[in-house]
Amino acid sequence: MAAETFPLAGKRIWVTGGNGFLGPHVVAELDRRGAVVLAPTEEACDLLDPGAAARFLRQHRPDGVLHMAARVGGIGANRRHPGSFFYANLAMGLHLVEACRAEGVDKLAVLGTVCAYPKFCPVPFREDSIWDGYPEETNAPYGIAKKALLVQLQAYRQEYGTRGIFLLPVNLYGPGDHLDPENNHVIPALIRKFLEAGAAGAPAVELWGTGSASREFLYVRDAAEAICEALARYEDPDPVNLGTGEELSIRDLALKIKAMTGFPGGLTFNAAYPDGQPRRKLDTSRALERFGWQARVSLDQGLAETIAWMKGALGL
Known about the structure:
The chain has about 325 residues and is an alpha/beta fold. The chain has ten helices and twelve strands.
């Protein structure tokens, strides 16, 4: 395993997006490693305000910054808000990275997205393929905005010596996930559909698309561990995938969740709705080689914990 070049114990770390889905898990992992975490709410530090990041840095003087704040959603949300998703994700990162450079932050980690990869990327997705084509259209504005921050980090490293790293997590899931059916991602959306259909005695559940598209899923606590390991040990300008390297079709995922939630009814797919990117499966070898991390939680274990949490959260 690579040596710790940025030991987290005692470090003051500003976590943007610390109050979202992934954020509390990362904050808990940083706490466990002895870091002093700064995680203001969006209201306390609105990164869409061009001067907010610089003001926060001057006031609190963190040693490191972990940028996870994002405007995110599933296919439906991306189709409804392409402009606002592009602007918000690019603007927040642009202002923050510049402020970190200007204020001399020691180390900066930025989270990208698997949506940045080309629509027809060779499988498994390798980091060097990220510029080989246009992203899947429904989430391209979000993916391109995030990918632009990789260019900014690499350019700032070259010109200013900015110590910035860029991480590419695959689809995340787990306890604490978004419950809003208008904006949530595929796993919480499926769990909710099956739980509510079961409670209502519905005869069947209908899902978007054909079910043939594939996805890869990373349990949220595995992601938190990966991010903290990278912050502590990784120093290169190259982006790094964070995932399991395991692929599953949406149809097979739906059947698995149907069984695990105990829903007795039928399952149909509505092909009038888009599937999104045809396949997603990451090559995760770089994370293991560069800073010694690999996922530990199986999909079955993670789904069981997520279903149990969602039952409580939804009162079902």
